[in-house]
User: Which sequence fits this backbone?
C-alpha cells in the first residue's frame, strides 16, 4: 500500500558514494572495484528475484574473517589504522547488504556508511573527497527522509490494518499525488537550512589547538614511506613506495612580481653532520639556537645584514605536515607569519624551526637570497670535520675514496684539515659526479636490507654496502655517502634534508609550485671559501623541465588549482582565519555605518540650502503634472475598459440567449457562462451551429460525429450550463479554469 | 442522524518530545563535535554543522507539517456493534507551498470502540485534500460521542515527535448487534398469527389490486382501469371494481429493558440486540414491524415496512436507556392497545417469564428470552460482540 520505491535505489547510491569517498581518501581502487562488483551482484540478484538472505552463521563467519584481515593489516602495516578500520566498515556494509531483513538493517547500513565517511574525512582533506562528501551528505539526507517515511508507513500498516478490498483505489492512490514534487521541495529546504547552519558553524564555531578537548587521541601511524622525516637513519631499509600526496604549495615572487625559477628549488629543512654507526643515525652537533618571537603580520629580520643590491626571493609557503621544521630556500633573511609564534634559528646552518605544535596547515612567508651561506670566520675556523663514533668507518670510506678513480690527487690531502681550501669545491664536485655516473637510483632497498641485516659492524654499514656492493639506493644513501666521503677527506660537509621541486611541478594557473611527499629529498652542502655550496649526488634525478602545454596538462593544472584553493580557504581555516574573518566583518560593518552616517550628514546639509528647495519645487511641480496626467489616463482607461467589458458581456449574453433576462441577472450569468460561449464559438468555427428548433441539450446529444471524448465533454459542459442557467448553480473561479481547459481539449481534438 | 460538527481548534495542546532515535542522533552529533574540536579538521566542523542543521530543520519541519492542516472525521450515518467500521479522515492542507507528510491521527478519549481508531497520512500536497481510512470496532450501542483527535508527526527524520490535539466533537449512532436469525423464529411469529380464533390480520383488505372484492360507485380519483363497463351500462351509473390487498403479517416487538443488576444488564443488551436482529430480518422478509419499549417514557413505533422504517426502529433500539422503573408487566399493560389490534406481539425479555396472566384473552404472544438456550441457538451473533462490554457504562 505504501510502497516507497525510491528508498532502495537511494540506499544503494548512498552506499556507493560512501565507499567511493573512502576509496578516494585511502587511494584504494582495488577495494572500490571489489565493493562495486559485490553491490552490482546484489542488485542483480534482487532484481531477478533470486536473492535470499544469508544465513546467520555465514554472515558471522564473513564478519569475523573481515575483522581478522583488518586486524592483521593493522598490526603488520605502516598505513594509518583508520584506513583499516574503514576497510572493515566497508566489509561490514557489504555483508549487511546480503542480510537485509527488516528496516533496522537499512538503518545499520546508513550508520556504518556515515562512520566510514567520518573516518575518511579524518584521513584526507583533498578536494576530490570533499566533492564526494558533499554529494554523499545530500544523498544521505534524502535517503533518510525516504527511510523515515518507509518506517512510518510500514509501522502504520502493521498497527492500523485496513483491509484493502474495502477501500477505493482512488483513496489508496491519492496520497501519492505530487509526492515527488513535495519530496524535492522538502529536500531542498533541508539542504538549504543544513548548509546554512553548517556554514555558520564552520565559520564561527570556536577553534583551538588539536587535542585541546580530549588530548591526542589519534592513533599513531607509521611514517610515510616517501616523505620528509626529522629522523634521518638507515634502520628501515625496505621497499619504499612513492607517495604522491600533496604536502604544500610554494608561491614565489621576485621584485614584487610572480617568479618561476626554471630550475630545481631546494627547500631546506634540516641539516646533519654527524653519522653514528650504532644506531645508523645522522645527527647534528649541539649548537646554540637563537629564538625570535614572530608577531603576526610583521616581517622580521633573521640572520643577515648588508643586503644592498641583492634580489630577495619572496616565498609564500603553506605546508600540511606535522612537526616543527620550517622549509625555505637557501639564505633566509626575513620571516613573516599570519599568527604569533616562536621561531628558533640555527645560525650555523640557517635552518628554521618553530617551537610549538602548529595546526595541520602551517602558512608563512620567507625572503631568501639564494646565495650560499658564508659562516662567520670564528665559526668557520672552529668547525671541524664531522666525526663519527667509529673512526674505522671513516678510514674505510677514505680508503675507498682514494682507491677509486674519484678525485685523483686531490683526494690525497692531509687530514685533519684547517679552513676550507680552493680545491674543496673540485673535490666535492668530483665525488658528486662519480656517484651520479656510477650509481643507480632505486626505491627497492630490500637487497641492502638483506646485506646489512647481520649487524651494525663497520663492515656491514649501509653506506659501505651501498658504496661497495649494491651501488644503488635512494637519495638518503647518495647524500649520506657523499657527506661521509667528503668528511673522510677532511672537507666540512653536511647532509641536508628537505623538499626538491622542479619546473614540472609548477602550476601556471595558480602560479605556485606543488610540493608532494615524493619530493622529499636529501642533498649535500660542502663548505668552500665561497660558502656552503649545494651538491646533489643522486643519480637519475635531473631536474624535470616544465612540460609542454596540452589540454590534459591544463585540466590537471586547473584541478590542482582548485585543490590548492580548497586547502587554502577551507582546510586551512583555523582560529586565526576565523578571527580575521570576524574582524573583517566587523570592520566592514563599522565602515558601512560610518559611510552611511557621513552620507546622511551630507544630505542633511544639502537639504538646508536654498538651492535644494528651488530644485525641489521644480521637481515637485513636474512630478505632480506627470502624476495628474497619468491619473487622467488611468481614469480614461478604466472607463473605456469598463465599457468594453460590459459590451463584451452583453454580446456574450446575446449569443447565449440571455438577452431577455433582467440586466443584473444577465450580467451575472454571462460571467458564469463564459466557458459555454467559448464552446459554442468553437463549434461554430467548425460549422456546427445549433438549429433553432433544438435545445442546447438536444444539440449536444446530436453531435455524434465528434470524437468520443469531445462528445462527452460537450455534453458535460452543456449540462453544467443548464445547472448554471436554470438551476442557479454558481461556478467558482477554480472550476472556471477547469471548464476552460475542457473547452481547450475539445478544440485540440477538433483540430485537423 | 448526527450531523458533522465543525473542526474546532481552540488553543490546541502541543507537545514535543525527542524519540529514542533522536537521542541516538544527538549523541552522534555530540561525538562529531568533540571529534572536530579535538582533531581541528575543517571538514569535520562542516559535518558537525550539517548534523546540527539537521536537528534545526527537524524542529522546523515538525512544526511546518502540522501547521494549517485541517482534519475532519467523515462519520457514516450509523454503525453496528461488532461489525468493523471504516471511518475516513479527511486531511486538508491549506498551506500554499509546503506539503504535509507522515501524519498519524488517533481518536482520543472515545470509549465506543474496542481500540482507538487511528489512521496514517503519508502525504498531502499543498492545497489538496487527502482521505485516509481507519477501521474501528464499535463496542456499545447508542449515541457515542467523539470528542478530540490527536495529530502527531515525527517527520522528517524521526528525531522529534510533535503532537497536536484538535477538538472535533461529533456523535456516532451505533445500532445494536445484528445476528443471523434462524428462520424458525419467523415461522414461530407467523404461526402465532394463524392460531388466533379470529385472525383478521390475514384477511384480505380492500384498497389493493389483488383479487376482486366487489363493486362500488366510481368516484373522481379512482383508477379508471377498474371501471366495470358492463355493470355501468346496465345500471346507468359509473361503477368500478374494488380489489383486495393481502395485508402482510405485522409484528409488534415489546422490548423489556428492566434490569436491576449487572448480570441483568448484559441480558438486556442481548435482548435489545435480539429485537434489532428480529426486526431487520422480518423487515427484509416483507413483514411489518413495530416497537414498544420504555425510554424514560413509553415509546411506540407503529408497525410498518421499508428501509427508512428499519432505520428508525434500529435507531430507537440503539437509544434505549437503562430501565429501572417499568418492568415487564408494566410493559405488557402499556402495550395493551396494540395487543387488541391485528399484530403479533413478540416479547423480548432478559429472562423467561410466565405471561398468561398479563395477556388479553385469546391472544398469543411470542416470548423470546435472552437467557434461554434456544435463543442463543436461534440468534447467532458475531464472535466480536461482547454484551458485557456493551453493558459497561
Assistant:
Amino acid at each position: 500500500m505504501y510502497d516507497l520505491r525510491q528508498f532502495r535505489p537511494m540506499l544503494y547510491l548512498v552506499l556507493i558514494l560512501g565507499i567511493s569517498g573512502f576509496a578516494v581518501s585511502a587511494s584504494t581502487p582495488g577495494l572500490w572495484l571489489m565493493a562495486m562488483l559485490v553491490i552490482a551482484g546484489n542488485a542483480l540478484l534482487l532484481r531477478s528475484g533470486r536473492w535470499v538472505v544469508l544465513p546467520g552463521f555465514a554472515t558471522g563467519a564473513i564478519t569475523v574473517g573481515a575483522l581478522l584481515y583488518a586486524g592483521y593489516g593493522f598490526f603488520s602495516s605502516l598505513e594509518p589504522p583508520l584506513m583499516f578500520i574503514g576497510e572493515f566498515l566497508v566489509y561490514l556494509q557489504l555483508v549487511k547488504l546480503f542480510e537485509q531483513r527488516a528496516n533496522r538493517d537499512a538503518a545499520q547500513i546508513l550508520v556504518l556508511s556515515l562512520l566510514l565517511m567520518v573516518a575518511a574525512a579524518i584521513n584526507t582533506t583533498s578536494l576530490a573527497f570533499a566533492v564526494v562528501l558533499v554529494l554523499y551528505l545530500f544523498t544521505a539526507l534524502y535517503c533518510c527522509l525516504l527511510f523515515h517515511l518507509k518506517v512510518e508507513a510500514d509501522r502504520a500498516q502493521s498497527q492500523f490494518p485496513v483491509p484493502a478490498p474495502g477501500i477505493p483505489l482512488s483513496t489508496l492512490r491519492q496520497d501519492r499525488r505530487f509526492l515527488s514534487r513535495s519530496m524535492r521541495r522538502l529536500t531542498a529546504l533541508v539542504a538549504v537550512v543544513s548548509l546554512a547552519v553548517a556554514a555558520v558553524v564552520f565559520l564561527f564555531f570556536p577553534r583551538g589547538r588539536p587535542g585541546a578537548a580530549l588530548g591526542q587521541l589519534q592513533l599513531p601511524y607509521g611514517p610515510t614511506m616517501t616523505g620528509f622525516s626529522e629522523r634521518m637513519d638507515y634502520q628501515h631499509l625496505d621497499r619504499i613506495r612513492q607517495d604522491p600526496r600533496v604536502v604544500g604549495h610554494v608561491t614565489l615572487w621576485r621584485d614584487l612580481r610572480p617568479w618561476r625559477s626554471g630550475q630545481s628549488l631546494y627547500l631546506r629543512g634540516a641539516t646533519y653532520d654527524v653519522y653514528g654507526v650504532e644506531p645508523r643515525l645522522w645527527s647534528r652537533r649541539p649548537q646554540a639556537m637563537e629564538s625570535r618571537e614572530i608577531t603576526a603580520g610583521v616581517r622580521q629580520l633573521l640572520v643577515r645584514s648588508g643586503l644592498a643590491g641583492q634580489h630577495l626571493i619572496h616565498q609564500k609557503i603553506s605546508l600540511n605536515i606535522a612537526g616543527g621544521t620550517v622549509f625555505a630556500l637557501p639564505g633566509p633573511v626575513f620571516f613573516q607569519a599570519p599568527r604569533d609564534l616562536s621561531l628558533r634559528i640555527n645560525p650555523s646552518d640557517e635552518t628554521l624551526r618553530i617551537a610549538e605544535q602548529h595546526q595541520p596547515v602551517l602558512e608563512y612567508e620567507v625572503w631568501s637570497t639564494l646565495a650560499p651561506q658564508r659562516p662567520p670566520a670564528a665559526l668557520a675556523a672552529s668547525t671541524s670535520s664531522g666525526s663519527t663514533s667509529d673512526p674505522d668507518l671513516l678510514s674505510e670510506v677514505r680508503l675507498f675514496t682514494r682507491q677509486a678513480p674519484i678525485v685523483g690527487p686531490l683526494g690525497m690531502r692531509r687530514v685533519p684539515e684547517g679552513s676550507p681550501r680552493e680545491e674543496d669545491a673540485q673535490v666535492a664536485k668530483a665525488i658528486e659526479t662519480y656517484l651520479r655516473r656510477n650509481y643507480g637510483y632505486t626505491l627497492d632497498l630490500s637487497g641492502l636490507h638483506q646485506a646489512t641485516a647481520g649487524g651494525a659492524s663497520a663492515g656491514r654499514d649501509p653506506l659501505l654496502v651501498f658504496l661497495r656492493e649494491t651501488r644503488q639506493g635512494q637519495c638518503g644513501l647518495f647524500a649520506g655517502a657523499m657527506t661521509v666521503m667528503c668528511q673522510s677527506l677532511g672537507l666540512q660537509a653536511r647532509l641536508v634534508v628537505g623538499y626538491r621541486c622542479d619546473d614540472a611541478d609548477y602550476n601556471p594557473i595558480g602560479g605556485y609550485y606543488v610540493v608532494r611527499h615524493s619530493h622529499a629529498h636529501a642533498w649535500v652542502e660542502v663548505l668552500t671559501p665561497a660558502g656552503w655550496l649545494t651538491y646533489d649526488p643522486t643519480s637519475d634525478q635531473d631536474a624535470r623541465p616544465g612540460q609542454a602545454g596540452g589540454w590534459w596538462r591544463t585540466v590537471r593544472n586547473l584541478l590542482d588549482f582548485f585543490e590548492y584553493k580548497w586547502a587554502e580557504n577551507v582546510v586551512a581555516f583555523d582560529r586565526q582565519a576565523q578571527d580575521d574573518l570576524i574582524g573583517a566583518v566587523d570592520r566592514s560593518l563599522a565602515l558601512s555605518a560610518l559611510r552611511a552616517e557621513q552620507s546622511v550628514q551630507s544630505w542633511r546639509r544639502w537639504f538646508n540650502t536654498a538651492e535644494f528647495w528651488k530644485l525641489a519645487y521644480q521637481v515637485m511641480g513636474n512630478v505632480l503634472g506627470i502624476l495628474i496626467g497619468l491619473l487622467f489616463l488611468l481614469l480614461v482607461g478604466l472607463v473605456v475598459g469598463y465599457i468594453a467589458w460590459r459590451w463584451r458581456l452583453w454580446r456574450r449574453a446575446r449569443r447565449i440567449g440571455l438577452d431577455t433576462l433582467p440586466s443584473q441577472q444577465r450580467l451575472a450569468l454571462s460571467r458564469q457562462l463564459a466557458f459555454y460561449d467559448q464552446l459554442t464559438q468553437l463549434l461554430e468555427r467548425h460549422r456546427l451551429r445549433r438549429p433553432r428548433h433544438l435545445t442546447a441539450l438536444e444539440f449536444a446529444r446530436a453531435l455524434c460525429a465528434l470524437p468520443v471524448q469531445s462528445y462527452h465533454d460537450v455534453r458535460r459542459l452543456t449540462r453544467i450550463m443548464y445547472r448554471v442557467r436554470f438551476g442557479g448553480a454558481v461556478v467558482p473561479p477554480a472550476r472556471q479554469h477547469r471548464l476552460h481547459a475542457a473547452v481547450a481539449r475539445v478544440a485540440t481534438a477538433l483540430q485537423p | 442522524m448526527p450531523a458533522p460538527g465543525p473542526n474546532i481548534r481552540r488553543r490546541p495542546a502541543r507537545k514535543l518530545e525527542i524519540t529514542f532515535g533522536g537521542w541516538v542522533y544527538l549523541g552522534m552529533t555530540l561525538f562529531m563535535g568533540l571529534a572536530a574540536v579535538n582533531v581541528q579538521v575543517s571538514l569535520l566542523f562542516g559535518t558537525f554543522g550539517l548534523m546540527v542543521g539537521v536537528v534545526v530543520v527537524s524542529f522546523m519541519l515538525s512544526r511546518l507539517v502540522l501547521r494549517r492542516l485541517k482534519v475532519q472525521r467523515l462519520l457514516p450515518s450509523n454503525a453496528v456493534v461488532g461489525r468493523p467500521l471504516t471511518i475516513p479522515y479527511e486531511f486538508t492542507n491549506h498551506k500554499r507551498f509546503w506539503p504535509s507528510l507522515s501524519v498519524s491521527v488517533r481518536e482520543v478519549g472515545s470509549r465506543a470502540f474496542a481500540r482507538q481508531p487511528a489512521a496514517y497520512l503519508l502525504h498531502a500536497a499543498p492545497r489538496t485534500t487527502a482521505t485516509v481510512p481507519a477501521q474501528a470496532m464499535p463496542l456499545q450501542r447508542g449515541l457515542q460521542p467523539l470528542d478530540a483527535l490527536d495529530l502527531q508527526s515525527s517527520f522528517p527524520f524521526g528525531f522529534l515527535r510533535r503532537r497536536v490535539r484538535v477538538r472535533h466533537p461529533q456523535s456516532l449512532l451505533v445500532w445494536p448487534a445484528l445476528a443471523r436469525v434462524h428462520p424458525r423464529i419467523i415461522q414461530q411469529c407467523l404461526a402465532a398469527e394463524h392460531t388466533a380464533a379470529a385472525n383478521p390480520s390475514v384477511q384480505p383488505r380492500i384498497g389493493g389490486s389483488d383479487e376482486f372484492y366487489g363493486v362500488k360507485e366510481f368516484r373522481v380519483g379512482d383508477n379508471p382501469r377498474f371501471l366495470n363497463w358492463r355493470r355501468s351500462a346496465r345500471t346507468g351509473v359509473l361503477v368500478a371494481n374494488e380489489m383486495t390487498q393481502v395485508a402482510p403479517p405485522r409484528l409488534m416487538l415489546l422490548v423489556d429493558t428492566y434490569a436491576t443488576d449487572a448480570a441483568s444488564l448484559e441480558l438486556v443488551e442481548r435482548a435489545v440486540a435480539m429485537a434489532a436482529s428480529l426486526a431487520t430480518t422480518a423487515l427484509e422478509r416483507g413483514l411489518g414491524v413495530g416497537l414498544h419499549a420504555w425510554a424514560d417514557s413509553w415509546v411506540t413505533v407503529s408497525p410498518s415496512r421499508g428501509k427508512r422504517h428499519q432505520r428508525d426502529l434500529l435507531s430507537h433500539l440503539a437509544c434505549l436507556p437503562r430501565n429501572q422503573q417499568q418492568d415487564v408487566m408494566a410493559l405488557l399493560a402499556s402495550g395493551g392497545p396494540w395487543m387488541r389490534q391485528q399484530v403479533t406481539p413478540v416479547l423480548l425479555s432478559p429472562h423467561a417469564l410466565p405471561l398468561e396472566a398479563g395477556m388479553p384473552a385469546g391472544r398469543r404472544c411470542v416470548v423470546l428470552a435472552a437467557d434461554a438456550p434456544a435463543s442463543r441457538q436461534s440468534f447467532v451473533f458475531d464472535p466480536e460482540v461482547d454484551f458485557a462490554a456493551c453493558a459497561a457504562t
About this structure: Chain B touches chain A through 55 residues (CB under 8 Å).
